[in-house]
Specification:
It contains two helices and 30 strands. By secondary structure, the protein is mainly beta. It has three domains: 100 residues, no CATH class; 140 residues, no CATH class; 129 residues, Tick-borne Encephalitis virus Glycoprotein, domain 1 (Sandwich).
Length: 405
């Protein structure tokens, strides 16, 4: 009986050392969760139990339990690295099987998909046309390499001051090439429907009537639209056109381009003092753009950044969680698979509900405490040695009994 009990103790200590060694071996594994050995007493029954006080049958090792505590977050220089602070798992798919991981060391494969080191594709929510994301279905997050489409200029906002004491222009008729036909000019780059840039220049001419000016618009040196009168009150505020809004319609600014309308907003211009000064001028068009890089935002949104300054949302990381984390089955490669014991999977966006927040450009380290594991290793070693000593002692007793005459 003592042999079997001591043998069970030796087997349990050996298994415990295996768990400890696995923890130590993965001390530097990203997103690794340490395991803990739990033991249970064995009892003998029936004829083997001599009395109620001496029915111990040894020890057995229960299934190991993983400790899903937070690991330390280490910041990196990789834009595709992600770390979860709080609860939840990244959702990945490998060979048609859905898995879950805390390892956020993602990269891009040859087809542009965001994958783990093992090739599992990161799952997320696809963007909706009107904004937001489709949280009802999962999709593979993929980085698209095509160019960003251009946008034709439709709005120009200008803020400047016209000098109240400016002289009346001496030119007989306005011409962009005749500097005597206007007092001041300011330019902004606008874009046609194909994304080609053009120089749009506002020419301002003082009229003979007090507090009145005339605005002309020229694109690439060609006068377009009709002259627009500007009228200021005695305080220097613009009173005409109403609201400072001027519409130029049906403009063809490039060869083979679509006609476009440009709304000019001059609501903030003034007529003060004796100095012409441009405070701000902007427009909303842009050229086509090449993909520069990609990054994750704090909301888990995968964004593509283009050379024209535009950003495109490619999708949002989908986090998953379970009622019983002990029910997850380790699947290797820092991933788990759901079982019936884990409960129904719940999905959501980062920092929503009970899901944790994301840290972009960071990784979650293993939660292994090396000092504690080394102490556990010494304890397991002592347990094995003690049980081995029981076997030696029991063998000596048996030999002594056999040597009785």
């Amino acid at each position: 009986m003592a042999f079997r009990i001591a043998l069970s103790g030796m087997n349990a200590a050996t298994s415990n050392l295996g768990v400890i060694s696995n923890n130590i071996a993965n001390a530097n594994t990203v997103g690794f969760k340490s395991s803990r050995s739990e033991f249970s007493e064995l009892v003998t029954t029936g004829s083997q139990a001599l009395d109620s006080a001496a029915n111990g049958g040894g020890v057995a090792l229960r299934p190991t339990r993983q400790q899903h505590t937070q690991g330390t977050i280490q910041f990196t220089d990789n834009a595709l690295d992600l770390a979860i602070s709080g609860s939840g798992f990244f959702t990945i798919e490998r060979d048609g099987v859905e898995q879950y991981t805390r390892d956020g060391a993602f990269q891009v494969d040859a087809d542009g998909y965001v994958v783990t080191a093992a090739g599992a594709r990161l799952q997320g929510f696809s963007p909706l046309v009107g904004g937001g994301f489709n949280t009802a279905d999962l999709t593979d997050l993929q980085i698209l390499s095509q160019e960003s489409a251009p946008q034709a200029t439709s709005e120009v906002d200008a803020t400047f001051n016209l000098p109240a004491n400016a002289p009346v222009t001496t030119g007989t008729a306005f011409s962009p090439t005749d500097p005597d036909s206007y007092n001041h000019a300011t330019s902004v780059t606008v874009y046609d429907s194909l994304g080609a840039p053009h120089a749009a220049t506002l020419y301002l001419s003082r009229d003979t009537t007090v507090n009145n000016w005339t605005l002309n618009l020229a694109i690439d040196g060609t006068d377009v639209g009709s002259p627009t009168p500007l009228e200021f009150d005695s305080s220097g505020a613009l009173i005409n056109p109403a609201g400072g809004q001027i519409a130029f319609t049906g403009l063809t600014v490039g060869t083979g381009t679509a006609a476009q309308d440009i709304a000019l907003d001059l609501s903030a211009i003034t007529q003060f003092g004796n100095e012409f000064a441009v405070s701000d001028i902007s427009q909303n068009g842009y050229e086509n753009g090449r993909l520069n890089d990609v990054e994750f935002t704090a909301d888990g949104i995968l964004q593509a950044r283009y050379s024209n300054g535009q950003r495109l949302d490619l999708g949002q990381v989908a986090l998953s969680n379970f009622r019983n984390l002990d029910g997850l089955q380790s699947d290797g490669e820092n991933a788990w698979r759901a079982t019936a014991d884990a409960g129904q999977v719940r999905r959501g966006a980062p920092d929503s509900g009970d899901f944790g927040t994301l840290r972009a450009g960071a990784l979650e380290s293993s939660n292994v405490d090396l000092t504690a594991q080394l102490v556990e290793m010494i304890t397991a070693q002592r347990s094995f040695q003690a049980n081995a000593q029981v076997v030696t002692t029991a063998d000596q007793i048996t030999q002594s009994a056999l040597n009785l005459r």
